[in-house]
Each structure stands twice: as C-alpha cells, then as structure tokens.
Amino acid sequence: MYYRRYNKEVNVLGKRWWDKSVIYQVYPKSFYDSNNDGIGDIRGIIEKLDYLKDLGIDIIWLSPVYKSPMDDNGYDISDYYDIDKQFGSMEDMDSLIEEGNKRGIKIMMDLVINHTSDENAWFIESKSSIDNPKRNFYIWKDPKPDGSAPNNWRSIFGGSAWEYDENTKQYYLHVFSKKQPDLNWENEQVRKELYKMVNYWLDKGLGGFRVDAITYIKKDNTFKSLEADDNEGLAHINAGSLNQEGIENFLAELKENTFSKYDIVTVAEAPGIPREQLKKYSGPEGFFDLLFEFGHSDLDVAEDGKWYTPKEWTLQEFKDALFKSQEVYNDLGFGALFLENHDQPRSLNKLIKEEDIGLSSAKMLATIYFLLKGIPFVYQGEEIGMTNVKYDSIEEYNDISSIDQYNSAIRDGLSKEEALTSVHNRSRDNARIPMQWDDSKNAGFTKGKPWLKANNNYKEVNVKNNLEAEDSILNYYKKLIDLRKNSEYSDVIVYGKYKGFMENDKNIFAYIREYEDKKLLILANFYSQNIKLKLNYTVEKVLLSNYGSFDISNGEIFLKPYEALVLAVL
Ligand code: NOJ
C-alpha cells in the first residue's frame, strides 16, 4: 500500500502519476454488449480496451457495475461487494482491472455512498422493525399528527422525498428515487461500514473513485419544512440536504480513512460548492483531488430544475462559469474538465445551433475545454460526435428522471408534444443510447435487442467511419491528447497558468496558458460567421487547427465559423 504524503510544493505543481491523464467515462450498459443480451457488459469493455488505448486514454471512469435492481441504472446498489449479473461477475471485474493495467489504463469506479437501493440487505433489515440494529442506518421519522410526511421536501426525481412504511409506521428519506433510501451518515457504524467497503475496492488496485452525490450526505437535522415552490406544496430538497453545515467533518473522515492511504485520484460530483470553498474540497489538501462543477453544464436548466421551463443562456455566461473556476485552479491544482456525462444531453446539441452541428463545431468544442487547466474527461461517443436522440414517444425512454419530468410537464398543463420536446432536449437517455461502433444493425453495439434504441444517425456517425476518415473528430481528439501528453507543450498544457483573453467578447472563446518560457493561445470562433481579429501576440507556431488550414498574416487572424486554433505565441 502506498501512503501519499502531502508536500504542498510538489502537489501544487502536480507531479503525480495521473497529472497528464485523460479520463474516459464508460456507461457500461450502453458501451459494448459482448454476449448479445442487449445490455453492455464488462467483457465488452475489455474487448474495447485497445480502442481506448489507441485513443490515448489513461483512466476509465466506470459508471456503477455493482449489484443493483437498476431503478436508476446502477446508482441504486443492492450489494457493494458484488457485480450485477447483467454486467458480468467479480472475475470479469478483476480481469478488467488486470487487462487495463497491462495497457497502462487504470479503472476508476463510481462510489455511490449517499444512498443504497431499497433492496440492499442493510435496508431490508432496517425496514424490518423499529428496534432492528440496522434501523438507524437510514433516516426514519414519524409522520406528522395528520399522518402526512415529516416535511415538504421534494426528491430530485419528483414527488415527496419521504416514503411511508406501513409495517413500522414511519417514513424514510430519499433524496433521489424512493428505491434509493439515504444512508444515515450521522451513524458512526454506517460510516465505518462504508470505509471498509471503499478500502476493499481500493485494495484491488483501482486508479481511484468518482464519488457520486457526495455533497448530499449531511442533512439539515432540524428537518424543517421549506418554503413551497410548486403547486403541491413541496420544496426542492437542496436547501435541506445539499452542502449542509458540518459536512466537512464527514468528508475529512472519509478521506482520512480511505483515499489518503492510497495513491489514487478522486473526483467528486459536487454541485453548488461556492468558489471560495473550492480549496477545501479539491486539490492537494482538499477532500478530493478533483471536483465536477456544473455551472457551465446546467446553464440551460432553470432554478426550479424543470426541463420545460425554458432558460436562455449566453456564451458570456458559459465562459464566466468556466473561467472563474480556472482562476481558482491556478493556485489549487486541476479542474475536472468536461462537457458531457451520463446525466447530460450531448454537448453538440446543447451548445451549437442544430444547423451548425458538424466536424468543425465538434472539434472546436473539443479544443476549448480540453486545454483548460485540469484533467480532461471524454464521455463515450463524444469523441465521434454523437448527438441527441429523438424518440417518438415517452414510452421509448428509460431514464427515471425523463419520465418524471414528462409527467410533471403534463401536470403543469403542457401538451404531450411540448412535454416530449423538453425530454428530447434534456433527457439523460441522450447520453445513454448505445455507443455507435459501426454501420451494422444497432450501431454494432449488440446483435440482440438493445435495451435502448440506437440513434438513427449511426450509419454516418460511428467509430468505424471516424477511424477511417483522416479529418474525423476522433482523429482530432487523438491529436489533442497527443499534444497534451507527448509534445514539447505538454508541461504548459498540464501545469501552465490560465490567463484570460478577450473574456468579454460575445463570439470568441479564448484563453492563454503559460508555463516557464512557453505561452499558448487557444482561440476559437464560437459563432457561425467569419471574424477578423488583430493580435497583440506574435504567432510562433500553429499547433492545431480544426479546419486544417488557417489564415494569419500581418498580425491579423481571419477565423472561419467555429474555427479553433491552438497557437504557440510570443
Ligand atoms: C448522480 C448520478 O450521476 C446520477 O446518474 C444519479 O441518478 C444520481 N447521482 C443518484 O445517484
């Protein structure tokens, strides 16, 4: 076992095995189906390791593969020590770690410890009687005198966050679905059990953990009702359960008993952490190494979380969200750089006008986020330009939150068409459709019946085509990764300071990275028209260009629509 020592100087400069890494997120259910039952599996991932190696990936973040009834596709764990049969066996998991190691790829598992499944043995015991020793593993409360729920908190997937149990006449709390009861972190026994489990997995040689919903583990223990924000009298649960005072003690204890004992990388899902507190949460002295922030990815979602409440956003807001954190990471270490994950629609649809989606805009998006200060994450299919899906009816969707949002839209008076349009735009299934490997049936994902229908565009948008075409998005990603890891500019890309450039321009997305004697200008036209610019820098070299040709002369640059350039400048 390796004990990491905190030498501030060294850590701020990075110099850990994962500093130069590129992380690829695999959503196992949709990645590759090796046994043709219609569901992706661990053996399927092993078969595709060489593809990921060739792309230049160092770490795979694997969404949950633990045993689960799949109410929320594995984010509802019924046995932390077992692998779900749909995905394979513990032996398969061990071979994935081993086969990954052979190729220099580490596995980062998903750690879901805010809640379990209601089918977890702990919950089954907890529910069995009021005086069961596991009763306090979860959060149980008496009904109000009129029999109603203890307070008016609304769960993230809709409806009251409390579920009544007839047998013991109490309610239990669930921040997410009612099949995902929240663990009671106030109970020391719970915490000890969790730490034991975390170390069990780390002892297998994982590269790290992506830590799910961790900022929800501490609740407002007064459990008071909040001001209602819907016509059912319910209030969004965040004010009573997200980033609550005192959470630091739990997070520090978690790190001390688990992560700090291993040479790993941790990344936490942490919505809503105020920027001033980033230092406490991430970096060498933080609770985690990296943090996923969502300011830039949830710009299109209204305060109330309803997908059908339209929310306009501007490029300026998008830039501000990313750049303000970059300033913090200059002193702190690294950001977790991402545009997509399994909870988000595809970035091309979110960020680019439909008529402009194509090679240039996809490569431009890749360029602008990849070279910020941090560790880049690529979500499966992002590297080939996969886009949103539009199923004809809500019945074709699987995602629990899409179904809730649809029903809630209808309750709020929207027509079926309008409700479906909001699901088209925002559904998490947009990211969960089968990975598009080739132009054969079901996009080459399975020879069986896929659990979710493949997108119609798979004949054009697929890995096979991307591998064959020299100017493909995939090959562009390879160039970006090569520049980050193997070029003479690697140190500036990994360790260089971020500096703003034209931050307030309404069509340009640009920034500088600086390290020792090297300076890079990342410059992109986030607009569908040509733009002419005068530069105060001398362009030494063009390191990457998404069009392949560029127009720079006499200190002037002509940028074509969605053109992106990586320039070494003086
Ligand atoms: C965040 C995960 O990313 C999401 O997919 C899941 O539904 C919730 N946490 C609950 O675990």
TrEMBL record:
Its EC number is 3.2.1.10. One of its GO terms (molecular function) is oligo-1,6-glucosidase activity. It comes from the Bacteria. SUPFAM superfamilies: (Trans)glycosidases, Glycosyl hydrolase domain. Keywords: Glycosidase, Hydrolase. SMART domains: Aamy. One of its GO terms (biological process) is oligosaccharide catabolic process. Signal peptide: none annotated. Pfam families: Alpha-amylase (PF00128), SusG_C (PF23915). The keyword Glycosyltransferase does not apply. Residues 25-432 form the Glycosyl hydrolase family 13 catalytic domain. InterPro entries: GH, GH13_cat_dom, Glyco_hydro_b, O16G_dom_2, SusG-like_C. The keyword Hydrolase applies. PANTHER family: ALPHA-AMYLASE FAMILY MEMBER (PTHR10357), OLIGO-1,6-GLUCOSIDASE 3-RELATED (PTHR10357:SF178). Belongs to the glycosyl hydrolase 13 family. This is Oligo-1,6-glucosidase.
